[in-house]
Amino acid sequence: QVFLVEKAGRRSLFLAGLMGMLISAVAMTVGLVLLSQFAWMSYVSMVAIFLFVIFFEVGPGPIPWFIVAELFSQGPRPAAIAVAGFCNWACNFIVGMCFQYIADLCGPYVFVIFAGLLLIFFLFAYFKVPETKGKSFEEIAAVFRRKKLSAKAMTELQDLRRSEEA
């Protein structure tokens, strides 16, 4: 896994994993919806489950731990990892406790919820998460500062245009 992360990059593996999980969730939904009409759809669902797990293990499983460790300097890093671990396990607990109730409520469409969340996570990661491969903490922080400054400049430009129109 470490060699793959170093070769392909954190962001690209994370995005590929999220997209693969999204496609797998859609395939699981299709398989469950059409199961009563086509018996072979059970195989589609099984393959989709295996692919979901594989894509999770390539991207969203390990990559956030790399990124969290690289986004924070040595001082706040332990606290950031503790918060990330808490969020991870809290979400796992919530999904584990609620899945059966949601499955009873949604029936074969239960994985549409996961697909929707995966789409949101993919879009967030695509637009907000930088590539951290081969970059120091200072370089990563500079990327965030540039994004913050460019957002501030855009806001100031919009304010200037509004004041000129008035």
From TrEMBL:
GO terms for biological process: D-glucose import; dehydroascorbic acid transport. The chain crosses the membrane at residues 12-34, 40-58, 79-103, 109-127. The keyword Amino-acid biosynthesis does not apply. It is found in: Membrane. Keywords: Membrane, Transmembrane, Transmembrane helix. PROSITE patterns: MFS. InterPro entries: GLUT, MFS_dom, MFS_sugar_transport-like, MFS_trans_sf, Sugar/inositol_transpt. GO terms for cellular component: brush border; plasma membrane. Residues 1-133 form the Major facilitator superfamily (MFS) profile domain. It is a multi-pass membrane protein. It comes from the Eukaryota. One of its GO terms (molecular function) is D-glucose transmembrane transporter activity. This is GTR2 protein. It comes from Cisticola juncidis. The lineage of its organism: Eukaryota, Metazoa, Chordata, Craniata, Vertebrata.
